Description:
This protein has helices at about 15-30, 40-45, 45-60, 65-75, 80-105, 115-125, 160-170, 185, 190-200, 220-230, 240-255, 265-270, 280-290, 305-315, 325-335, 340, 350-360, 370-380, and strands spanning about 5-10, 35-40, 110, 135, 155, 175, 205-210, 230-235, 255-260, 275-280, 295-300, 320, 385-395, 395-400. By secondary structure, the protein is an alpha/beta fold.
Amino acid sequence: MSRPRAVLLSGSLGLGHEMLVRSCAALLERSGWSVESFDCMNLLGRRSGALGQRLFTRTVSALPGAYDALHFAHLRTGSRLASALDTSASARLTPVLRELFHREAPDLVLSVFATGASAAAKLRANGQLDAPSVVLCTDVTLHRLWVQPGADLFIATSPTAAASVLRYLPRANVAVVPPPVRPAFYDAPSKEKARAELGLPRDAPCALMIDSGWGFGPTDARVAALARAGICVLAVAGRQRELERRFRALAATDEHVLPFGFVEDVPLLMAAADLVIALPGATTCSEARVVGRPLLLLDSMPGHGRENLLHELGLRNARVAGPAPEDLVEAALAFLASPTADAVSRRPARWEPAFAEALGRVGVDLRADKETDAAAGVAAKLGAGVRSRTAVRTRAGSREVEE
Length: 403
């Protein structure tokens, strides 16, 4: 008997979508499903996808006021500009998805990216997708592009987010679950064990400063300022190689800096730290809370970042700092000196049971079998996971390449 097939639609803007795909794929595979993920930015075509990615990233990082205007005045309200952007992207994406689904029909389409969510909903509404179309968003509010008629289920991670869905579709099927977090974060070691493995002093103040894939979180100036203040800094550059090079140059002259590029073992680094300094990305914040580490959030992410920041501050064990190095140092020292920084937070509830229950609403069964569960666990430890494929449009037609 063939295994049910799930298609996950993601997007290469930041690392949050990728981590969501990993979490959901691991759960589905443990439950006996075969899983493929597709990057919607690549599915838009090399030229359009690359242009859209550069434009979006540049707007967020270099023109935050412009992105605020786009997010709050257009994406949130569903203006004519938002509709035009959605129509343009869907015109390119829906034919590609329709072809993919026709070639090998899925039993579930799970979208963790707004463009994919919109395109899948349109195919479902037009009768061109037989499988349930499910949307998963971890932001505290979902804007108009996320919420389209045709989606069978919206999975939100807070009551506020669920209410934001009903702002556009009052009769939508909405479920609230804890934020998906990869299993390794629940199994993070103690602070003592993590520091011993990394060769860090047992009692020195230590902060993990991690980039979420946007390129304007950690900077060498911020890391240097923290190190000068006597704080050991686990400086993670992610996939920014130039930033990693600068971190390594800092480490050569200051023993307080421990530099990293892209790392898989983030749970170990979080466990070793007294404090996690990051942008208010939902995935990173959820991971830190599972490990039990307080958050110092940089107030430098526009649009949905401002909404997520307020949400995180409303939860326990989080503070905010300005982006200037001197402001960050002052906030970090004050936080580390507070009783809150010494207390390990109560870990949130596991997300998997609520997620499985939510999918049950649309007829998706996640009953795990033991053999598949064991195999998926081994694959996760080896860094395996979802086969990621990209549809490449050529003059001769469409073909697929393994990434």
